[in-house]
From TrEMBL:
Pfam families reported for this sequence: BRI3BP
BP GO annotations: cellular response to gamma radiation; intrinsic apoptotic signaling pathway in response to DNA damage by p53 class mediator
Record-given protein name: Transmembrane protein 109 isoform X2
Residue ranges crossing the lipid bilayer per the database entry: 56-78, 90-109, 115-131
Keyword list, A-Z: Membrane, Transmembrane, Transmembrane helix
Species whose genome carries this gene: Labeo rohita (Indian major carp)
Disordered as annotated region, ranges: 151-172
Length: 172
């Protein structure tokens, strides 16, 4: 089993070496063509590098892979933190509303009109704070489906109108 892992490692190493050689060769050809094209256009093309090596290709690929993985990890962590903060703020809003509702109902000295006004104010606060759901777009896919069904109904209605006009012109 140890020899299998060594041979697999050697196989991957040789594959990476072969591919980096190929990419370096292609890049060298492209650099040569770009330099010749720029020189033929009268532009003095002094590139900071004249030849791309396979080791340079591997170095750039490793750093590129590191950047992509770091971006994925950072974006995952940011999404987790934003989601946790969003949930916490939603919980604070709900706690505030429930506390205010309890306070409004527990005040025994207030008249019915005062309690009604307070409850209406609490409803306005709920609307302003946006206390509905914890999801960002709860019904977006449903709205898309409804629009699609409405388009189908419109298309079917147009087809039926066309068929009715055709049949009425045939009867005449």
């Amino acid at each position: 089993m140890r020899t299998d892992s060594i041979s697999l490692h050697q196989l991957l190493q040789s594959d990476v070496k072969w591919k980096s050689d190929a990419v370096a060769s292609v890049l060298n050809v492209v650099i040569r063509y770009v330099a010749e094209t720029l020189e033929s256009a009268g532009i003095d093309a002094k590139l900071p590098f004249q030849k791309v090596t396979p080791e340079g290709v591997i170095f750039v690929a490793k750093w590129g892979l590191l950047v992509v993985v770091a971006y994925w990890i950072i974006s995952f962590i940011v999404r987790l933190v934003v989601g946790a903060v969003r949930q916490t703020l939603w919980l604070l809003k709900v706690t505030f509303v429930i506390g205010m509702f309890g306070w409004i109902l527990s005040t025994t000295g207030a008249s019915a009109e005062t309690t009604a006004v307070r409850l209406a104010g609490l409803v306005c606060i709920c609307v302003l704070l946006g206390i509905r759901s914890t999801s960002a777009k709860p019904d977006a896919h449903l709205e898309d489906k409804i629009k699609m069904l409405e388009r189908r109904l419109d298309d079917d209605g147009e087809k039926q109108n066309g068929m009715m006009e055709k049949s009425s012109s045939d009867q005449e």
